[in-house]
Amino acid sequence: MSPNRYKYQRWGLTFLTPQHNLFSSKKAYQLRFAAISSSLLIMGVVVKDMEITSTLPAAKIFKAFVLDSDELFPKVHPHAFKSIELVEGDGCAGSIKKITFAEEHIKHAKHRIDLLDKEKFIYHYTWIEGDALMNVFEKISYEIKFEAHHHGSVCKVTTKFFVIGDVKLDEEKLEAGKEKFIGLFRAIEAHVLAN
Question: What is the mean pLDDT of residues 106-117?
Fold first, then answer.
């Protein structure tokens, strides 16, 4: 960014404006905003939202998908996960987990728990280290909330990809990541229903 411009945030969007006159009518604002399929790119952050419905009650799928994930992910999806272990903290906000993958191109990752609300079924975490960032992302944050929905529940997920520099994102890879997440969710759901 050139030194004569600075960021101005309003309504969740970041504008680049002339430094000397924020509301100058003579200078056109430069809005860094691009729609990418179902995602939004704002100044190096790609935001994607999705919802997954389940026949399970919110409390039950939250317990399986979040609270019991260290045990269930490798058990239900052994071709994707070798192990998940708590390496720092007590499992609450600020704790760090290490994920060892079974895939060839991605070996490990670490994520930090940012929020864990067992009463409201909310879980936020951030990938902060490892092959899963692919030298493309500084970090990837997930905000997950489970709510009652009709005769079951809905899992609402907001994912924020913090891009390094001006790297161009491959929408197909992002879509593939979304499909893996949904596949894992369905596998955990099926496991709970069967047991």
Answer: 95
